[in-house]
Amino acid sequence: MAQVKIYGRRSVWGARRTEVSDALHDALVRAWQLPPDKRFHRFLLLDDDDLVAPRSDAYLVVEVVCFTGRTREAKRALVAALYDVVPALGLTVDDVELVILESPRENWGIRGVSGDELALSYRVDV
Questions:
Q1: d(CA 94, CA 99)
Q2: How far is Cα 39 from Cα 35, in angstroms, rounded to an integer?
Q3: Which of 25, 47, 60, 121 maximizes the CB count within 10 A of its CB?
């Protein structure tokens, strides 16, 4: 399980949600072998004055909230996969930051059950 939150300026990214979502999902599928149909993305786009950072106007913060269980190598693979798609979005490496936030499966409630009772069609321990 992985959910993605994308923070950026509405004026820059509002019309480019699909492009960003496609690029991020491609990185997750390649790095973590998520099924192509498992896309959970939330855009939290802000007014220009609500995002204060010493970066360009195109700056994005990407948070991946997921079940605990992925290896250090898998996390590094996701970082590499994300930064592989940065140029396609017209960004530099300084324009994107990724945070992976892990939580034990029992801390999730999905489809009426605790996450540790959920039968997944894919592996988390990649």
A1: 14
A2: 8
A3: 60
> Which sequence spans correspond to the domains of the chain?
2-107
Q: Report the alpha-carbon distance of residue 63 to residue 7 in Å, rounded.
A: 8
DSSP structure string for the chain: -EEEEEEEEHHHHGGGHHHHHHHHHHHHHHHH---TT---EEEEEE-GGG---SS-TT-EEEEEEEES---HHHHHHHHHHHHHHTGGGT--GGGEEEEEEEE-GGG-EETTEEGGG---SS-S--
pLDDT tens-digit readout, 93-116: 999 999 999 999 888 888 887 888
CATH 3.40.50.2300 is held by the domain 2-107: no
The pLDDT tens digits for 8-28 are 999 999 999 999 999 999 999
**pTM listed for this prediction:** 0.91
